[in-house]
Task: inverse folding
């Protein structure tokens, strides 16, 4: 069986190694960081994430969904915090069983790596950093402990995240390789709400909390130990921004003005703000995602998106399912398998990138408004009265496996029909009213 060199044992790398191991491939997985089981904290990335239908399906296919989700916390809707501290709950779906789940990144990472290691032909090497890839010979050059080494396979798959070294080699070597990256003007910083007395959650546990403030926002996801991880998404530059908020007084004043109900729950706010890094948010588009039968990209390495739809990891896990299906379909023609995987995923990854940007505006600005809440209620009413016919966009993206691009198209069509219909009804109603008054 062929040998595959995987670069990056993050969330998708571990899962892909398990899928390939099950298919009988010899897999050598190289990760630049230390083993997450040795307490290696995933620096600069979110501590917890929301996993939903697509991600769970991918875990189920390899038989680890139960193990992975045992400590996950279901979040049934958005809990909106306005400036006065008033709370509004908006369920994610008309079916209360449809929820997203807060899951710890490090624990999930460990679960997928351990799942991969159960296959006899999967080996994982930590503290090995890929510096570049020779595409024609499918050879990854690596550094470990100051030594250089080369790992040659029949194929190299880059699962090495948004700043992929494998992708950089493709950029350098492939003529007409298309590449585009765009950074948001916003960065993010993680902060903590610790557990309350008796290790209980100090806010509603089964919700994703949002403090929408128009041009910026804070969110919080629950952790199993009773704490919440908050993430502040805020402009890097500008009169009120990360750049101008330097001193403890600045931080205290900003939080007291914007998030007064949260401040009292955040005893380590000043320390967290000072010490935690400010991360950047990038969208990556590139093409193609493969070179002959030798090199392929998967997950953020192929299509990093901003995190506002909570789908980056879910999409990366879905990539694993699709690549596995393509390898099954073309067992002896790896280039065709890579090509089919690319053609099935590219349009969907592009659609997700747009959806994720759109959802940032919805979360930080629109969730606070009464119109938003009314639209969500109308969505749920239509979903309940027209089951299987009308599906809100959020439901399609989060609680189904309808390809992202199809979901976006269908939502646009539904909106045209529903809002076109409502406007027509309104016009007819006004016309009738005028006739009545005229008589
Ligand atoms: C703030 C934030 C919140 C998010 N929330 C969600 C969410 O709620 N739901 C969701 O679905 N997604 C979320 N995401 C997106 C999610 O984190 C990513 O889509 C997901 O981690 C992608 O998995 P990956 O395996 O492709 O990349 P990564 O998880 O980034 O893993 C890449 C791995 O490759 C390793 N690596 C990198 N370079 C090299 C090299 N040169 N050599 C060897 N190893 C290397 C890295 O150390 C890492 O382990 C969020 C992202 C952010 C930033």
Result:
């Amino acid at each position: 069986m062929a040998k595959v060199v995987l670069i990056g044992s993050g969330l998708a790398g571990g899962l892909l190694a398990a899928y390939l191991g099950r298919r009988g491939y010899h897999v050598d997985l190289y990760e630049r960081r230390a083993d997450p089981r040795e307490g290696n904290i995933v620096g600069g990335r979110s501590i917890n994430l929301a996993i939903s239908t697509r991600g769970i399906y991918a875990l189920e296919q390899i038989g680890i969904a139960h193990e992975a989700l045992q400590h996950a916390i279901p979040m049934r809707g958005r809990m909106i915090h306005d400036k006065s501290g008033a709370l509004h709950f908006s369920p994610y779906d008309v079916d209360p069983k449809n929820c997203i789940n807060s899951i710890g990144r490090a624990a999930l990472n460990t679960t997928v790596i351990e799942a991969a290691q159960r296959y006899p032909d999967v080996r994982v090497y930590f503290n090995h950093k890929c510096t570049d890839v020779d595409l024609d010979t499918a050879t990854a050059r690596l550094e470990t402990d100051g030594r250089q080494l080369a790992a040659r396979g029949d194929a190299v798959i880059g699962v090495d995240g948004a700043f992929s070294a494998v992708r950089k080699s493709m950029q350098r070597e492939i003529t007409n390789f298309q590449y585009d990256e765009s950074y948001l003007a916003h960065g993010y910083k993680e902060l903590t709400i610790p557990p309350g007395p008796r290790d209980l959650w100090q806010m509603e546990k089964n919700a994703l909390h949002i403090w929408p403030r128009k041009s910026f926002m804070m969110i919080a996801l629950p952790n199993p130990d009773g704490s919440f991880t908050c993430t502040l998404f805020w402009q890097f530059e500008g009169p009120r921004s990360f750049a101008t908020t330097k001193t403890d007084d600045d931080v205290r004043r900003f939080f007291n003005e914007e998030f007064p109900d949260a401040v009292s729950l955040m005893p380590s706010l000043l320390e967290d703000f000072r010490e935690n890094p400010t991360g950047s948010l990038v969208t990556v588009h590139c093409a193609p995602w493969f070179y002959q039968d030798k090199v392929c990209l998967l997950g953020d390495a192929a299509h990093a998106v901003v995190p506002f739809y909570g789908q980056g990891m879910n999409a990366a896990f879905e990539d694993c399912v699709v690549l596995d299906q393509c390898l099954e379909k073309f067992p002896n023609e790896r280039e065709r398998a890579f090509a089919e995987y690319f053609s099935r995923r590219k349009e969907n990854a592009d659609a997700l990138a747009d959806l994720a940007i759109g959802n940032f505006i919805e979360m930080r600005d629109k969730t606070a408004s009464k119109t938003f809440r009314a639209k969500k209620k109308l969505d749920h009413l239509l979903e309940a009265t027209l089951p299987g016919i009308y599906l809100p966009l959020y439901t399609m993206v989060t609680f189904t496996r309808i390809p992202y691009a199809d979901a976006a198209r269908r939502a646009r069509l539904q909106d045209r029909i529903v809002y076109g219909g409502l406007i027509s009804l309104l016009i007819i109603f006004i016309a009738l009213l005028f006739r009545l008054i005229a008589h």
About this structure: The chain has 14 helices and 19 strands. The chain has a mean pLDDT of 95. Residues 404-438 form the longest helix (35 residues).
